[in-house]
Amino acid sequence: MAEIIQRDGTWAFDGTTVRITPGLHRSVPLFRQTYGEIAVPLEAVSSVVYEPERKRGRLRMRLREGADPLLHATGGRLPDPADPYRLLVDIDRAGVAEYVAEEIRRALLLDQVPKDPTKTYLLAGPPVPVSVRSSDGTVSFDGLQVRIDWSDTSDRVKRATGPRIIAVGDLVGIEWLPNSGYEDGFLRFVTRETAFSKLPPEKDPYALDLWGSARRDLLTALVATAVTARLPHPSTRTGDDHAQDRPARLPAAVPRADHHDVLLRRLRELGELHRDGVLTDEEFTMTKAAVLRGF
After folding, report:
1. Distance between CA atoms of 156 and 160, rounded to whole angstroms?
2. d(CA 290, CA 193)
3. Residue 74, number of CB atoms within 10 A of its CB
4. Rg for the chain (alpha carbons), in Å?
5. Which residues are CB-neighbours of 151 under 8 A, at least 6 positions away?
6. Among 41-50, 148-157, 196-205, 215-224, the least confident range
7. CA distance 254 to 143
8. What is the dihedral of CA 164, 167, 169, 174, to 10 degrees?
9. pLDDT at residue 244 tops 50
10. Residues 6+ away with beta carbon under 8 Å from 7
11. Measured between alpha carbons, how far is residue 35 from residues 79, 126, 154, 196, 249 in Å?
């Protein structure tokens, strides 16, 4: 067993799996603490290095492309402190860090682990159900459906459409950009019908506009990752035809109860908002189309 325990977290390698546990110190980002322990199988690892610096060094792990739904969902946009595959190391523990890195590299060599992209996710991602409250609303995922409940501060077009419910089988992808504190971010759920939508995140009823606490909004990556882990692996994609690469393992779209009365009520409410001048002609047309797509 090769192990290093730091205030930033713990890495333990038993020859087949690297267990990464975030530290509990207040300096550890909320995202890493919430994501929790990650078990990385050796076959998912591409390389491990220790990067020494004057005061503190860092262990850094690189995973094989396609191995981790978290890295695919976030597209390399996670802020460096929130990266779970990075461990800050006190300078007096540099020798231990070098030892852990060398043990993992030796195992990679002995097991002849390839460095080429994987054809399936080798890490499971966060467990479900998972729910995150963001600046634009609350997004939840139970393994079969995504649900978005808008907040009071959401755009009126979004609030007029009501809660958004999307079955996994209707999704073709996820788009995620973190809120940096200087620029807004977003979490967008892409369906066949909305794949070419040009709506900005603040008005898109299939997207959360992330403009509040960057620390809290970063947690939306948990939902993005959980959903990504249940979508077809990137290796199954054929060009940009997303509709034809749905493997049989995906759950079918969840059957819906008769929503006819709900649909009529929503349309009546939108008509009243339009007549009262709350919604412009353009907003009414856009919102009506979103409601009809949702049903």
Report:
1. 6
2. 10
3. 22
4. 22
5. 135, 136, 137, 138
6. 196-205
7. 11
8. 50
9. no
10. 23, 25, 27, 28, 88, 90
11. 14, 7, 26, 32, 25
- Residues near 69 by beta carbon (within 8 Å), at least 6 away in sequence: 121, 123, 124, 125, 225, 226, 228, 229
Q: Which pLDDT belongs to residue 40?
A: 98
Secondary-structure breakdown of the chain: helix, strand, coil percentages, each rounded to the nearest 5: 30, 25, 40
Scan for tokens 């073709």, then name that residue.
172
pLDDT digits (tens, 9 = 90+) for 21-34: 999 999 999 999 99
What tokens appear for 97 in the block? 């860090």
Q: Which residues contact 80 (CB under 8 A, 6 or more apart)?
A: 86
Per-residue CA distances from 207 to 18, 105, 125, 214, 292 (Å): 35, 41, 21, 17, 17
Give dist(CA 137, CA 209) in Å, integer. Answer: 9
Structure tokens at 161: 């459409």
